[in-house]
Structure formats: structure tokens, C-alpha cells
Amino acid sequence: MKSLTKIESGVLSLCLFAVSVFVCLALVEVFLEGRSNTKREKMLEQKNAGKCSMPSENKKLIYTFIPNKCGSNSKGYRDYEYSYIKEGGILRIVVIGDSVAQGQGVDLNQSFPKVLEQKLNALISGEGRKVQVINLARSGYTTSQELIILEQEAFLYSPDLIIWSYVLNDPAHPYYDIGNPMGMYYFQPRFYTVELVKEALVKIRERIMTRICNTEYPAFVHCVYWKDVKSNIKHIAKLTDERGTPVILVIHPVFNDSGDFNSYPFRTLHKQLSSLASDNGIEAVDLTQAYLPYDPVELAQKKEDGLIDPWHPNIKGNEIVANYILGVLKDNQSFRDWAGKSY
After folding, report:
1. Which residue ranges in the chain fall short of pLDDT 50?
2. Is the full-model pTM beyond 0.85?
3. What kind and span of H or E run contains 94?
4. Residue 236 located in a structural domain
5. Cα(166)–Cα(302) distance, integer angstroms
6. pLDDT at residue number 197
7. Where are the extended beta strands (E) located within 190-339?
8. What is d(CA 53, CA 66) in angstroms, rounded to the nearest whole number?
9. Residue 324 lies in a domain
10. What is the pLDDT, as a whole number, of residue 42?
């Protein structure tokens, strides 16, 4: 038998190596997919995932709520039904945000968007005039996903104003961050091996940033992703400016049981966010000012372990948010003219 030349032998070795790598990657891919499915099964048992939500057809959104189920309307939002067509005499406000704006933990009519709607309608003079506050918030969404809602859905309602409900965990990664189990549950990458590398790079970056960033979560996530925060705020301003629709950035504080809001630890971060919004032509509303007279324990929801929920306001907290935004709108000349009253 004719022996292989050095070139042929080298080519054969290279082919065998390539096949070995391919087989190894395929095995790793099968293992990672199996591990992911096991995690999803455990989450299904613990978090009841999948009962009220489902994968989104828009891959950027990862998941959505099942229409007409678990309190969602036909478009998969926790709100009443609203037609895209805006009738005459209607002023429309669209709220974009996450579980805080969605009103998680309180009844629908106790959420700040619905309380605001009720209070605004009580102010209006003139027959046939009405305010509709349409809630396009969705639990677990980050700013990157909320921007998709703004681009693809919000303007279908012909809004006169956008209220952007901003929470201090919004810059987090939509599915790598452990604080968002819904994203982790529904995210199914095309290649698990590639996604493993991407996730590792994200975690390495965050680990490196612990050397220079405040490690308290709200400050840390803004320090790590500040470039993204700036880009997102700029994008919000661009989209709303193109449509001629004003936008208000409502910044929610974090609740803690270790002190009042006079010693709130993230004041500087709120000022940075307010300045960033202002620099992009967006009015900022810092709710820290609304909460100053109160103890955080009075306004926060309670978790099952008895500790306060750092993110979600209770009924009283939602009422305060609605009243504060109402005060901002009452100071707006355009709204006063439309409402037919002076304040």
C-alpha cells in the first residue's frame, strides 16, 4: 500500500482534529441544552412560569404575557382594552416600564397609572373630554426591551405624552441577570455554547468592574452599564422627538428599612439620571422628593419573609406616585390649556 505523503498525512490529521472539535462542541451543546432545560423545569415548579406568560414572537422581547389571561388584555398588558384609534376629545398618556408601572402586588385600579387616570379625569372641564392612561409596562422588562415597546407599539395609540417609569435595576441584562428569572426562563439561544461564552464575558466584565464601582446593586449596575444608559436615554429622546411627543422620565427610588429618605443612599445617582434626561431634552421627575415625608416601610410592599420589597410600592406608595405626577402635569401650561382649567 502506498504510504501517505507528509502533506496528505497533515491534511488527514487536520481533518481528524476538526471532526474531533466538532464532535466535542456538539456534545457540549447537547449537555448545555439539557442543563438549561433542567433549570427551566425547576423554575416552572418554583415560580409557576408559563402560566401567565409565553415566548414572544419578537425575539428581542424574549417573552410576553398571554393575551386575555391572568388579568392581561388582548395585547398582553395588564390594563383595560384600548383601541389604537383615538377619538376626538381624548388625551392619551402611554406608560412604559416594568413591574412597578404594571402595578405588581396591587389591584389594577390601585396601580399608579390607573390612579393617575382617575385623578386627571376628575380635573377636566368640558363635555366629551377624557384622559386615557394606557399601560404598556411589563414585569421583568429592562430598558433595552422597553425601547422595543416604544418603537413598535406605543405610537400606535397616538399618545400625547409618554411617561417612562424608570427603576434602578433597569440597566440590567435582560436574561443574564439573576434578578430576572423570566428572562432566564424564556431565553433560548440558537447555540448554547456561543451563549455560554457571551455570558462568561459579561460576568468577567462585571467582576472586573467591582474594583472601581460601588458594589450596592443599583449603583453597581449603573456604573457597569452607564454607557448603555446614556445611549438608551438618547434613543428615547430621539424617537419621541421625531414623533413630536413629549416624554417624562419618572425615577423610582429603592425602598430600604434602614433609614428614611433624607438619608437615601442613591441621591447622587438620581441626580445623574435627571441631568442625563435634561441634557437630552427629557423632563425628569425624581420621586425621592415625593417620598421624603414618609418612612420607606410605610410605602413598600412586604415579601413572604416579612422583609420589605425594595422595588414595589404598596397601595399608599402608588397613590403618592400618582399624586406627584399629577402635580407635575398641573404645572404644565399645555395640559392646563387642554383641561380647560387654571391651577
Report:
1. 1, 342-343
2. yes
3. strand 90-96
4. yes
5. 21
6. 77
7. 247-251, 283-286, 300-302, 308-313
8. 5
9. yes
10. 66
The CATH number for 109's domain is 3.40.50.1110
Contact 156, 84 (CB under 8 A): yes
The conformational region for residue 302 under phi > 0 = left, psi -120 to 50 = alpha, else beta, is beta
To the nearest 10°, the Cα dihedral for 326, 328, 334, 336? 50
DSSP string, 47-74: H-TTSSEEE-SSTTT-EEEPTTSTT--T
One DSSP character per residue, 166-218 reads: E-TTTTS-TTTSTT-HHHHHH---S-HHHHHHHHHHHHHHHHHHTTTS--SHH
Q: Please check whether residue 309 is in contact with residue 297, taking contact to mean a CB–CB distance below 8 angstroms.
A: no
Residue 48 lies inside a defined structural domain of this protein: no
**Number of domains within the chain:** 1
Q: In this structure, how many other beta carbons lie within 10 angstroms of the beta carbon of residue 10?
A: 11
The HSE-up count of residue 87 (CA atoms within 13 Å, CB side) is 7
Integer Cα distance of 234 and 294 in angstroms:
33
Name the residue among 136, 192, 123, 67 with its Cα closest to residue 342.
123
In a domain, 189, yes or no: no
- Under DSSP, is residue 301 helix (H, G, I), strand (E, B) or coil? strand
Range of the domain at 240: 84-171+225-339
Report whether 291 contacts 266 (CB < 8 A). no
The 3 state secondary structure assigned to 97-145 is: CCHHHHCCCCCHHHCHHHHHHHHHHHHCCCCCCEEEEEECCCCCCCHHH
